[in-house]
Amino acid sequence: MSGAAQQEDPAPAIELRGISKAFGTVQANRGIDLTVPRGTIHGIIGENGAGKSTLMSILYGFYRPDAGQILIGGQPVTIPDSQSAIRAGIGMVFQHFKLVRNFTVLENVILGAEDGARLRPSLARARRELQRLAAEYELLVDPDTLIEDLSVGHQQRVEILKALYRQADILILDEPTGVLTPAEADHLFRILRGLRDEGKTIILITHKLREIMEITDNVSVMRRSRMVASRATAETSTAELAELMVGRKVLLRVDKAPARPGAPVLGVRGLRMTDATGVERLRGIDLEIRAGEILGIAGVAGNGQTQLLEILGGYPEPGARLSGELVLNGQALPLTGSDGRARRRAGIGHVPEDRQAEGLIMDFTAWENAAFGYHDAPEFRRGWFLDNAAMRADAAAKIEHFDVRPPDPELPAKSFSGGNQQKIVVAREVERNPDLLLIGQPTRGVDIGAIEFIHKRIVALRDAGKAVLLVSVELDEIMALSDRIAVMFDGRIMGERRPDQTTSGDLGSLMAGVDPASTDPQGAMPPAAAHPGHAPGAGA
Ligand SMILES: Nc1ncnc2c1ncn2[C@@H]1O[C@H](COP(=O)(O)OP(=O)(O)OP(=O)(O)O)[C@@H](O)[C@H]1O
């Protein structure tokens, strides 16, 4: 902890007093007090829907609190909008970046920070300032690259640079490592420590207790809209934090017996896919998954996993060209011309990686979403008509089983917190006991209590003799759940490992396109131009 800055200026960087906020009947924040000393990294943790994002959105001027007071550096302030937050020295890095994809890095950094009339003359100065900041904070990015050509790790650097360019003294990061490789996350933490050590104040929202223990000075715990505890990180443990968050002891590992694989459920042979722009995304995938086993696909986001899941789920990208063969339970499965509903009828459940874009219709209610894709199931029909009452009852049962909060099937999907949206999608697909479950990033943004529950459900499905294809960028999750691990790199399977016969370092090498077991590691490297937007391992 950097106590020096604190002693010189005793006023905390941030002080929240009695902050409350309701959305309709949902009380998201209730009388929240929070003190964040200057020059510290402060973790905020809590279950899905506990109210963390709401609290930070209040601090960043997205929402007005119904009650309470905000003090910045000891001075009471009102923050009616994000421009005011920026003026108060607050910067925020969102989970979903707010960058303009077809603008360059430099354009994004100066956007909104400069008066349009003065833009031209100041461009050279802005570039120099950006380059100075990038060098000083090890956030190297080319100012003239388009955002859409950057890896997610580099896009995040641009978000941080944007905040620093606006002279933020307080930086809020909402689940910043969800999209990063382990090496990128380490790099981010080095940068955050550097910022802290020069007196900046950082608030980190995360579900990963390992990160809290590694990088924060203090941590505050939210539960059901209240702040229930604050601790100096050095004086607590992951077990205590988990219990404070969830209100009970949480198993922090997956308990499972060895797999007993049966007959092949899915066969993938020579699968190739070229997208509408002519880039080959899958370059000949061969896979087999048997009944009663979990095949984990590890890899840095953007190496073809998304395309593989989409094709298997029956939703290939528009304009994609496909070739190869799919076999499900001994029957040929058409590559195209079969949509998600047909796949579901054939016994394939699908939790897409991007729940908001593909898993849910955000304006529809939870009960409509909980039946999405299964409207033709016999239990949801009464003759020719849809049986809404049956769908509502089914959704209510799933919501209760998965502890979705608030437990109200009539709310639109968009009113649930990210983790609770994810639970709705997972409940819909897993509870149908599909022969093959395709599951992408199952616990992204999900709290530890719910991770424990979702992991148990995936293992139970396997133990019931079903096949699971798990795609995750979380190596811990892949290692804990998979019976076999295939690593994807640049549209190919780089190698396959058993979890008890590999290490995160070995998998990390494969994820970067290097096979430590091969005598010709360079032979596996792709042509550099193939994936300009997804430089694997970028940022390390
Ligand atoms: N715009 C909104 N309209 C209606 N309800 C909302 C809105 N934003 C949040 N809520 C509700 O407020 C509560 C707190 O949500 P919030 O997003 O702050 O939780 P969170 O702790 O950040 O959760 P997660 O870890 O899942 O992101 C939830 O019950 C959520 O459903």
Automatic annotation (TrEMBL):
Belongs to the ABC transporter superfamily. Keywords: ATP-binding, Cell membrane, Membrane, Nucleotide-binding, Repeat, Sugar transport, Translocase, Transport. Residues 496-540 are annotated as: Disordered. Residues 523-540 have a biased composition (Low complexity). InterPro entries: AAA+_ATPase (IPR003593), ABC_carbohydrate_import_ATPase (IPR050107), ABC_transporter-like_ATP-bd (IPR003439), ABC_transporter-like_CS (IPR017871), P-loop_NTPase (IPR027417). It holds the Pfam family ABC_tran. Its main location: membrane. It comes from Paracoccus halophilus. One of its GO terms (cellular component) is plasma membrane. This is Heme ABC transporter ATP-binding protein. One of its GO terms (molecular function) is ATP binding. SMART domains: AAA. It is found in: Cell membrane.
